[in-house]
Amino acid sequence: MSENFLSSLNESQQNAAKHIDGSLLILAGAGSGKTKTITTRLAYLISIGIDPSSILTLTFTNKAATEMRERAYSLIDSSAINTPPLLCTFHKFGLLFLKFHMSELGRKNNFIIIDNDDKKRILKSIDKEITTSILVSEISKYKNTLLTPTEAKLAAQLKLYQQIADVYEKYEAYLLKNNLVDFDDLLLLPFRILEKNESLAKETSQRYQYVMVDEYQDTNELQYKLLRLLCTTHNNLCVVGDDDQSIYGWRGATIKNILNFTEHFENTTVVKLEENYRSTDTILEHANQLIEHNRDRLGKKLVGTRAKGDSIKVYESHDENEETRKIIDDITKLVATGVSGRDIAVLFRVNALSRSLEEGFNRAGINYRLVGGMKFYERAEIKDLIAYFRILTNTTDNFSLKRIINKPKRGIGKTTIDKLDAKSVELKKPIFTILEEFNAEELAAIVGKKNSRTLKVFMASVMDLRDALEESKMRFLDSFEDTFDYRASFDNVPDGFDRQANIDEFYGYIRDYFIQNPHLSLEDFLNEIALESEKGELTEQAISMMSIHSSKGLEYKHLFIIGLEEGFFPIIGDGSDIEEERRLGYVAITRAMDNLTLSFVHSRFYKGKRATLLKSRFLSESGLIKGSLTIEKHSCFKKGDLVKHKIFGMGRVQKAGKAGKDFKLTINFGGTRRDILSSFVEKM
After folding, report:
1. 8 Å CB contact between 585 and 549
2. 547-596 confidence digits (pLDDT tens)
3. β-pair partners for 89
4. Which of 367-371, 445-449, 614-618, 675-679 is least confident?
C-alpha cells in the first residue's frame, strides 16, 4: 500500500517521506511540493505500523493542520486508525497540555484564555500613559524570548522600558490572580512546566515518539526550546521549511533555528527539495540569482520542471499614475483574452502603494479584492484624517468629532464624550458649537476643569486650521501636522511604519489633487473619495491585490510586482534587515507561474511630498537589468533593540555602527555598557 502513494513523489521527496528515525531537515524550496511531502511522510509512518497516537505534527495555522490531515488520510485506510495522530497548531498543543498539567504551576486547569482585545483592556487598566499597542508588542516579545518581569527590569535602561517592565509585572500578577492565560502563555507555560519537571518531560517525549513541524523557518526561540524538551528521550524530529522564505523576523521568527538545525540536533539528515512545479524556468532563473546575494542561507537552487516560458517584463514609469495605467492596460488585455481575474495578482511591499492602484482600478471598472488587508480608505489612520478634515469643513458633524476628539490621545475619555453627546442632544446643538459657545467655567461644569481646558485648546486649534485652509490649501497640511502631530503619534507603534506610510500617501494625494484641481475645495476632495470608498466589491473573478507578506503560500499565473524602488522595496534604514528584504523579493517572484512583470517609477509621493527615487537593487541583483547599485548593507540592529549575549545576558542596543563586514554595537547590559560585535549577539 505504501508504495502506491510514494510513487507519485520524486526521488528527493521519497527520501524525505521514507525517513523514519533520527532528526530530519526537509529544505523545501518554493513550489517544490512541501505539503505533499510531509503529509505523505505522515501517511507512510502510519502505513508501516507506527502507532498514530505517537506522532505529533505541529503547524502555524488551523487551515494548514486541516489540509494536512485530509491529505494524509486520503492516502491510507483511515477507518483502521483507532487513535489518530495529533495534528494541530503549536498553540492548540499548548492548550491541550495545560488542561492536563496546569497543576504543576499550582494553578487550576479551569483557566480562561483571553484574546487580544481582553489583553489590551487589562493593560490599559494598568497603565493609561504608554500606548497600548506598544505594551502588547513588547510584553509578547518578552514572553517569546523567555524573559521574566524581573529579567525585563534588569535589561531596561531607558525610562520607557522600565515602565513597560513594571506593567509586565503587574499584568502577570493580574493574570495569575484571575487564572487567565494569554496567547503567548499557551507556549510559555508548557515550556516552564517541562523545563522544571524532568520526569514529565521524559513522559511527554516518550508519548510523542515522532514529531514533525511545518514552516520551521517561522519558529521563534520559545518554540525551538519547547521542541527540544519534546525530544528529551529521542531525536525523531522532522522539520520542513525554507530559509529563503523566512520573512517574519519582525514578528519574532528566528531564521537561526533553521540555519543551525544540524547543530541543534545531532546526526541530522538533510533533504533538499529543489524541483519546482510552479514557475517557468525563466522566473526561477531570476529568483535564484536574487537570493544568491544573501549570506545567511543554507544554499539550494530551484530547478524547473516546466518550459522556459516568457521573458520577465520590467516597467519603467515616470510616476505611480503611469505605473498604474500600464498595469491596467495589461490586465484589460488579459481579461479580454479570457484570463480569469482569479489568475491575476498585484503585489507590493508597502501597503500604502495600494492607494493609486485602487483609484485606478475603480476608474477603469476593474473588479479587485484586497487580500489580507483593508482597502486604503478603510484603514483606521486614514478614517481618522478624513474625520479631522470633515470637522474642518463642517463643524456640525458630531460623528466625526467624536472619532478624533482624543486622537492623538489628549486625555478625553469615553465618559467625557458621552457627557458632551448628552448635552448636544439636550440643547439640540452640535458638540463643536457647545465647545465654542460655552465659556471655560460652563464647560467645566459638564466635563471638569482639566478636560475643559483641553477641549478649549482643541477647539481653538481647529478654528486656526480653518483659517489656514482659507489662506492656502497647500500650506494647510503642514499646519495640520504642526498642530496635531498626528503622524508622529505612530512613531513607536509596532505597525507604525505602515501607518505613517499610509498617512504620507494620503497627504501626497491631497497635495496632488489640489495641484490638479486648484479651483476645488477640501470638501470637494472629501466628497470624491467618499464616492470611491463606497464602490461595491464583487469578489467573483476579482483580481487579487495584496502585500508580499500576504502572498506567501499563494500562486498566480499572471503576476505584477510594483514599487521596486530603494526605500520602498527594499525598505532601507530604520533597523530593516536587507537579507530579509531580499527573501521577500524571492518570495514575491516565486509566486508567479507563467508571466511576471516588475515595475519601478522615478517619482513617487513619499512623506507627504513627491520624491525622486532610485530603482531597486533587486532588479540588477536578479539579472533583470544591467549594472548594480553599490549600496552599503544596513545593520539589522537599531537603537532600542533587545539582544542576548551568551555570557553577558540580555541588553539594549544604544548605538550601532559599521565595523568592516560586521557592526559594532554599544549595548547596555543591566547598567554596564559594552561594545560588542553584532555577530556575537542574537536579536530578540
Report:
1. no
2. 999 999 999 999 999 999 999 999 987 667 899 999 999 999 999 999 99
3. 59
4. 675-679
456-483 tens-digit pLDDT = 999 889 999 998 888 888 888 888 888 8
Instruction: Tell me 472's DSSP state.
Output: -
With 0-12 / 13-18 / 19 or more C-beta atoms within 10 angstroms meaning exposed / middle / buried, residue 315 is middle
Buried b (16+ CB within 10 A) or exposed e, 636-665: bbbeebbbbbeebebbbbeebeeeeeebeb
Q: Which residues pair with 55 in a beta bridge?
A: 210
Instruction: Give the tens place of pLDDT for each residue, 500-528.
Output: 889 988 888 888 888 888 888 888 888 87
DSSP 8-state assignment for residue 197: -
List residues with catalytic annotation. Answer: 34-35, 214-215, 245, 591
Count of CB atoms within 10 A of residue 190's CB?
25
**CA gap 142, 164 in Å, rounded:** 10
Side-chain-facing half-sphere of 410: CA atoms under 13 Å = 23
Candidates 20, 43, 26; CA nearest to 273 is 26
Tell me the whole-structure pTM to 2 decimals: 0.80
Which residues lie below 8 Å from residue 41, measured CB to CB, with a gap of 6+?
Answer: 16, 17, 18, 19, 212, 238
